[in-house]
């Protein structure tokens, strides 16, 4: 849990999306972060300090010359003790003030006095976002090291449709975790595969499996959070596309192979978490097969073994990680796959991890070292796998 015990100042400014700061606060507290809310005067026109204080389990600060315990001036106390400052939502006004060094209220003064990273989540009318001055302010802050999440594109409260919506709260949470994560994968190009493949029987039926893609998506997000440049090749999944990642959607095993072949040569770390179909129908019908006959036989043929292909083409310096889903003889079958596919690591698991928020895996390397992990959330499993990759690389 990256945010556990971290002291986070949450600045809320006067935008219609201020109500989403309540959900962000709830999620930060759920991650066991210590949240110190700071509201501008205009923010109070949209949500009440009582609501924010209740969810944060802490008092709301808003006045510049408030005194905290021990008679320390609040903006100095907040600035010196925080691990991260999040401004969500951030209006064009607050962005302009920060970019110009103006400190005329508590929030801008805290930001001016802080050494902690600052994460800004803009929210405004699309015309304001496209305003040249606003764009220059944003670019100036990015060059100075300020972090941004969003904005998103969509229908706005004012009736316009365009870019300016506050980023999804989960995306802001991911950005907060990324801001506080050691960048031990910086400079690495990581290729991750995820999800199932679908092999068509006819236009409406297919052969597939129960993979949700969660493990691969967790690996891609964790690698990005740790500083890597990430490509995620994903079979069909209902999971939202991760932000800041090159996303390549595919359907069938052949498409998965083609995408991997395209990105494999320039990748330094490859993690094949996708559940690629081993077999496909030898014939795919151009029209829907009617249920006239009492039985239906479908002849199947092997698909290309993408992992084996990559193992044969592996270059010096590349790290190749595969997954082995087994129903029996877990370690024995996983070791066999490790050797036959020329892998550096194999992650063995059982069907219990399919379409689940958690997974219980065993990690085996070429030297035969075996690490059995407890049942963990998939993002935690992803970090444990990447820890092994980093140690191997170093």
- Looking at CATH, the homologous superfamily of the largest domain is CoaB-like
CATH class of the largest domain, anyone?
Alpha Beta
Shape: elongated
Largest sheet: 8 strands, mixed
Low-confidence stretches: none
List the domain count as a whole number: 2
Number of helices: 13
- Give the overall average pLDDT: 88
- How many beta-strand elements? 21
**Termini gap:** 24 Å
In what range is the share of β-strand residues?
15-25%
Radius of gyration: 25 Å
Quaternary state reads single chain
CATH architecture of the largest domain: 3-Layer(aba) Sandwich
Proportion of helical residues: 25-40%
Short key terms for the protein model shown above:
elongated, 13 helices, alpha/beta, Rossmann fold, 394 residues, 2 domains, eight-stranded mixed sheet, single chain, five-stranded parallel sheet
Overall description:
This protein is an alpha/beta fold. It has 2 domains: 7-179, Flavin prenyltransferase-like (Rossmann fold), CATH 3.40.50.1950; 189-286 and 295-393, CoaB-like (Rossmann fold, 3-Layer(aba) Sandwich), CATH 3.40.50. The protein has 13 helices and 21 strands. An 8-stranded mixed sheet has the order 12-11-8-13-16-17-19-20, with helices on both faces. It has a 5-stranded parallel sheet with strand order 2-1-3-4-5, sandwiched between helices. Strand 6 (152-155) and strand 7 form a beta hairpin. The longest helix is centred in the last third of the chain and has 16 residues, at 378-393. It is elongated and about 75 Å long. It starts with 6 loop residues before the first strand and ends with a helix. The model has no long low-confidence stretch (mean pLDDT 88).
């Amino acid at each position: 849990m990256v945010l556990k015990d971290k002291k986070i100042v949450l600045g809320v400014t006067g935008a219609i999306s201020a109500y989403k700061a309540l959900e962000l606060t709830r999620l930060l507290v759920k991650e066991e972060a210590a949240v110190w809310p700071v509201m501008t005067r205009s923010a109070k026109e949209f949500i009440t300090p009582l609501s924010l204080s209740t969810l944060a389990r802490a008092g709301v600060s808003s006045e510049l010359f408030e005194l905290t315990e021990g008679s320390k001036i609040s903006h100095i106390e907040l600035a010196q003790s925080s691990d991260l400052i999040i401004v969500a939502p951030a209006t064009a006004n607050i962005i302009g003030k920060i970019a110009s060094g103006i400190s005329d209220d508590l929030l801008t003064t805290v930001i001016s006095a802080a050494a902690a990273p600052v994460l800004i989540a803009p929210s405004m009318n699309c015309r304001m976002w496209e305003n040249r001055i606003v764009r220059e302010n944003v670019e100036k802050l990015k060059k100075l090291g300020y972090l941004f999440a969003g904005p998103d594109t969509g229908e706005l409260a004012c009736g316009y449709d365009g870019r300016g919506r506050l980023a999804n709260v989960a995306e802001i949470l991911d950005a907060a975790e990324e801001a506080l994560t050691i960048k031990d994968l910086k400079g690495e190009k990581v290729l991750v595969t995820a999800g199932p493949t679908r092999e068509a029987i006819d236009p409406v039926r297919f052969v597939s499996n129960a993979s949700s893609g969660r493990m691969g998506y967790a690996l891609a997000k964790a690698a990005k959070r740790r500083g890597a440049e990430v490509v995620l090749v994903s079979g069909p999944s209902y999971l939202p596309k991760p932000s800041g990642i090159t996303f390549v959607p595919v359907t069938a095993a052949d498409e998965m192979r083609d995408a991997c072949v395209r990105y494999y040569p320039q990748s330094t770390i490859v993690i094949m978490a996708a559940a690629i179909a081993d077999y496909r129908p030898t014939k795919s019908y151009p029209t829907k097969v009617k249920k006239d006959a009492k039985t239906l036989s479908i002849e199947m043929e092997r698909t290309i073994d993408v992992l084996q292909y990559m193992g044969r083409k592996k270059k010096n310096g590349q790290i190749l990680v595969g997954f082995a889903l087994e129903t029996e003889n877990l370690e024995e079958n996983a070791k066999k796959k490790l050797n036959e596919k020329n892998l550096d690591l194999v992650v063995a698991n059982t069907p219990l991890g399919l379409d689940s928020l958690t997974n219980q895996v065993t990690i085996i390397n070429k030297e035969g070292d075996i690490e059995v992990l407890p049942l963990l959330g998939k993002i935690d499993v992803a970090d444990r796998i990447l820890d092994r990759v980093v140690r191997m690389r170093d």
